[in-house]
Design brief:
The structure holds two protein chains of two kinds. Chain A is of the alpha+beta class. Helix content of chain A is 23%, strand content 25%. Chain B has one domain: Orthogonal Bundle (Non-ribosomal Peptide Synthetase Peptidyl Carrier Protein, Chain A). Classes of the chains: A alpha+beta, B mainly alpha.
Chain lengths: 406, 82
């Protein structure tokens, strides 16, 4: 028997709200299965089981906000336990109140001098799903289908205003019947999350910075030739090639890949490349391309497509937020020449890539126009020095000159 | 395929990618990426959706003919008329 805990999805998270229970008690669970969803400042995160077993009960009600580390569900992990086919809880009539609502008391947060207090700017209305700390909140349980909750979140419907009929489940049709709210949600939660993480980074991490101009002509030609006869859904973007080059280079320079925690740097065997992704309407997240080591440009591209699509939909997996070991911030086609990142703790490095454009470069003694971009490295001086940082950037450059070997 | 069909399809696909931008507030002759604040992944998704919808290959070498809303509508009109 083990407890499934509210995960920590980054250094800046201290609590989350359970918004979906995707498995019923009695359902078999496999490692990696998404068993629920948690609303955080960064959006809705799917949480995965870490072991095989059977989900025996939920300890936290949908809609409850609980601190990181709170047990949310019990999982019987005996490998021999067969999945139970019988109906769960047959003795409870359908509309009976849930036995002993397990909503934990609003636990007082211990003072955390390490984290910036997340202030509530005064004139902002409450967000749609993270309810204000309200003593009534835990008592009346909101019954709502997952599809309805998703739709409500998309339409920025204030769910607390819907609680008019007791014991009735809110469905998608109910949400559809409401006047759509056109007002965008206050971006303050995400801004607060960014503020907390970046302030901590600048307070704790002694950054150093390097910059290197990279000729992208070879990569550009390789992409044009590769994409020429490819169907739309098989085409590569430059990001896939750059991600492969970084994943390859970091194998030789492990001091840029890992986490600095408890006063020491621990390099990571896996390479999980965080991608800083801009969110329409403000803010950004940097979820990881998990286990990027050894991937071909094609599988990298598939993974990037999938990740970006889910970020746009405001949905990612817990591991994608907590497991990034190094981050890439790429300005894309319409940016400026260079970007110096702020390291996302507990990581120790962030690579910046400026917008590629034609630069005058010298080849064979002549000045010629070449497609090029400036790549930067911001790294943690507690884990590495500028010397190895320079070698690391040159290694990425070298891989980008031989894109066909990636 | 009428001009109206193409405009409708293009408007729908752009709305899916950039729901916060009103189509009547953009400059149809200016660069789509600027007008809709879309990145290269969004653009690839847009072209992929349109390619599927109209059964077109939309080769990368034609991307330069798809710069603005009007360019893209014209490109789709020419290709679907063939």
């Amino acid at each position: 028997m083990s407890e499934f805990l509210m995960p920590s999805l980054g250094a800046d998270m201290d609590a989350g709200t359970l918004v979906e229970q995707l498995l019923a008690p009695g359902a078999p669970v496999h490692r990696g299965d998404v068993i629920g969803a948690v609303e955080t400042q960064k959006g809705v995160i799917e949480v995965e089981a870490f072991q095989n077993g059977v989900l025996t009960e939920w300890l936290v009600d949908i809609g409850s906000k609980v601190p990181v580390g709170t047990p949310m569900a019990m999982i019987a992990t005996d490998a021999a336990t067969p999945p139970k086919p019988e109906q769960p809880q047959p003795e409870l009539p359908d509309d009976a109140p849930p036995e002993m609502p397990q909503t934990p008391e609003p636990t007082p947060q211990p003072p955390q001098p390490e984290n910036l207090p997340i202030e509530e700017p005064s004139p902002v209305p409450p967000g749609p799903e993270i309810p204000p700390t309200d003593p009534q909140q835990g008592k009346a349980r909101l019954r709502i289908t997952p599809a309805a909750r998703r739709l409500a979140a998309r339409r920025h419907v204030d769910l607390s205003a819907l609680r008019t009929v007791p014991h009735q489940t809110i469905t998608r049709a109910d949400i559809l019947g409401l006047d759509p709210v056109t007002k965008p949600p206050p971006a303050t939660d995400m801004r607060a999350a960014i503020a907390a993480a970046m302030s901590r980074s600048k307070r704790e991490i002694p950054h150093y910075y390097l910059s290197h101009m990279i000729d992208l002509t070879a990569a550009d030609r390789f992409l044009a030739a590769t994409n020429k006869d490819r169907k739309l859904q098989e085409r590569l973007l430059p990001a896939a090639i750059v991600a492969c080059a970084i994943a390859r280079a970091v194998e030789k320079y492990p001091e840029f890949n890992g986490h600095y925690t408890d006063g020491a740097f621990a390099p990571s065997a896996a390479v999980s490349l965080g991608l800083a992704i801009h969110i329409r309407g403000g803010g950004l997240v940097a979820p990881a391309l998990l286990d990027a080591r050894g991937r071909s440009p094609e599988t990298m591209m598939t993974q990037i497509r999938d990740l970006v699509a889910r970020v746009r939909a405001g949905r990612f997996r817990a591991r994608e937020l907590s497991d990034a070991t190094i981050t890439l911030s790429s300005l894309g086609d319409r940016g400026v020449d260079e970007v110096y990142g702020v390291i996302y703790p507990p990581q120790v490095a962030i690579i910046g890539l400026g917008t590629p454009r034609l630069h005058p470069m010298i080849r064979d003694g002549k000045v010629v126009p070449r497609m090029a971009a400036r790549m930067t490295l911001a790294a943690d001086h507690r884990a590495s020095d500028g010397h190895s940082g320079a070698l690391f950037l040159r290694a990425i450059d070298k891989h980008l000159q031989e894109p066909e070997t990636l | 395929m009428t001009q109206q069909d193409i405009q409708t399809a293009l408007t729908e696909e752009l709305h899916r990618i950039a729901p916060d931008i009103e189509i009547d507030q953009i400059d149809p002759g200016a660069d789509l990426r600027d007008e809709f604040d879309i990145d290269s992944m969004d653009f690839l998704n847009l072209v992929t959706a349109l390619g599927k919808r109209f059964g077109l290959a939309m080769p990368e070498s034609d991307y330069d003919k798809m710069r603005s809303f009007d360019d893209l509508a014209g490109y789709l009109r020419d290709k679907t008329a063939a």
